[in-house]
Amino acid sequence: AYERRFPTCPLIPMFVASDTVSEYKSEDGAIQVIERRCKLDIDAPRLLKKIAGVDYVYFVQKNSLNRRERTLHIEAYNETFSNRVIINEHCSYTVHPDNEDWTCFEQSASLDIKSFFGFESTVEKIAMKQYTSNIKKGKEIIEYYLKQLEEEGITFVPRWTPPVACKSESSTSHPRRPVSPAINIPESATKEGLSNKEILNTSSSPSEPTAGTPDDKLDADYIKRYLGDLTPMQESCLIRLRQWLQETHKGKIPKDEHILRFLRARDFNIDKAREILCQSLTWRKQHQVDYILDTWNPPQVLQDYYAGGWHHHDKDGRPLYVLRLGQMDTKGLVRALGEEALLRYVLSINEEGLRRCEENTKVFGRPISSWTCLVDLEGLNMRHLWRPGVKALLRIIEVVEANYPETLGRLLILRAPRVFPVLWTLVSPFIDDNTRKKFLIYAGNDYQGPGGLLDYIDKEIIPDFLGGECMCEVPEGGLVPKSLYRTAEELENEDIKLWTETIYQSASVFKGAPHEVLIQIVDASSVITWDFDVCKGDIVFNIFHSKRAPQPPKKDSLGAHSITSPGGNNVQLIDKVWQLGRDYSMVESPLICKEGESVQGSHVTRWPGFYILQWKFHSMPACATTNLPRVDDVLASLQVSSHKCKVMYYTEVIGSEDFRGSMTSLESSHSGFSQLSAATTSSSQSHSSSMISR
């Protein structure tokens, strides 16, 4: 009855098709092993499928029938995204030990989400939903085929008996596929991280070029195709930094191309690159930069008067962005929209640039990690030196330099007027030296001669306003009508500030003054989830439970319970007279978190009452077990010498009725780097009990 599910089953709509990979039969006919590659249409949001770039997922399923022992064992694992998500399922049909006419059925599965474009929790929920529905339907499907067999007159299958004389082996194999005999996977192999696919030595479809690369060495073809020329030292730096990120930012590390940008920006100094990369990852997460392209629509004023847009590509295949700065009314845009909206728009341009670089890498078959910017300054005058406008420009440059290093391949500045040196004097100190080397400045019509535009851009795509033949759809800009101007109060009331639009809160942690968050739980078995980044210093994370509510913190900033600081708030809830074990209890083991680490986890509550999440200053030990202190420890002790730490956190409580029977390591659905997440061997594995994943 079970075999009738294949090659496809109308009762399982998501099961589209299957192909036999290999088939084995023993000489006596007692053992039969069939391995199939199954094509599934997972019920997932369209956005997730679009981001993942797949319509179907493939699983490998091995069915081992042992007629001698009267058992059927079914093993399945995912082939698609196996470097990001590991799913293993095992089912068995066996004879009941007390009644040989009864069949026992057992089913188990494990899910290990390493990284999935920042949608780790979404994938977990989808997997749980699919798995639960499959369990409910499993019995219904097997009964359907049993009834079908009965209608065909098949109600009994004689038991297997060993043949009197051994016949010649009758094994069949799929063409050009190796025979895959039934093998018991040794425990040591599992511990060493070998997958079923590797042990069985069966061939599989080639993985995507962007799949994960080995930890100790990058594949030469992968480097050439996606990263460009790297020296052994540069390759080593990339692997070491990526490995560090995998250990500290589990499930959410950037792609190799993006890590490489930060290394190049600091001349492959790992310590310096790590520092700016961690700051950038925290910034992206705090301000939800990954979702700008999907969730934010630029105001109409920007669409009409911001004189910039994407325009084909240069001769090297880099995306080309055209900015007619001289035609743009920077004062009018700042007065009509505010500095924050302009910054947000520039960030969306940079995010679009990253996306276009990936597309052009696929189109041209070589690594393209930066874009070219063409800036036309015709019309630039003293109006553009309006102080608030220059201030906004400097801030935009500062943010872009910090978070999008090495993304500018070349900057072509055309028709620079006499006032340009004044603007350049104001702006150039804020631009990185490596970036400044990429600037080419042309005065008047010099760009039309030798060494001009034609050296970098094909004649066919030079914009019409520069004397070319290509129609450029970039807005012409012009003066923003004063009727669209708004006061500072109106802009503030618009609530469009990028820095305030975040689900995360900041807190300061001092020596002797931890930061604490109170969560009241009414229903037992609720799930408390957390997601936090240690921005400065080292901290200890604790979770406590109390049956009685702590006293509310005092409002005055000088009180013992509450401290207000520019870097974030500090609230203390546990009264000094409370005793651990009497007034409150610890429900999770303390977790030491180092500076730069990103931590996610969850706790399934056992009792109602009051739960306190605590971030406490972590003091360096007075003496170490080793003779000499590590360099990292010395640097860390210097960094926290001020006895102050900073934490950015988000917490959420999920009702037990929403996740009854699901796995408990429910990561925050708001965490992750959807644009920059990539293949990683780090793990945020689900367990059957409460867990903290770092």
UniProtKB/TrEMBL annotation:
Biological-process GO terms, alphabetical: innate immune response; negative regulation of RIG-I signaling pathway
Database matches in PROSITE patterns: CRAL_TRIO, GOLD, PRELI_MSF1
Main location: cytoplasm
Subunit structure: Interacts with RIGI (via tandem CARD domain); the interaction is direct. Interacts (via GOLD domain) with SLC18A3; the interaction is direct. Interacts with SLC5A7 (via GOLD domain); the interaction is direct.
Database matches in PANTHER family: SEC14 RELATED PROTEIN (PTHR23324), SEC14-LIKE PROTEIN 1 (PTHR23324:SF51)
Domain CRAL-TRIO: 298-474
Spans through the membrane: none
Short name of any one Pfam family annotated for the protein: PRELI
Identification of the protein by name: SEC14-like protein 1
N-terminal signal peptide: none
Gene field: Sec14l1_1
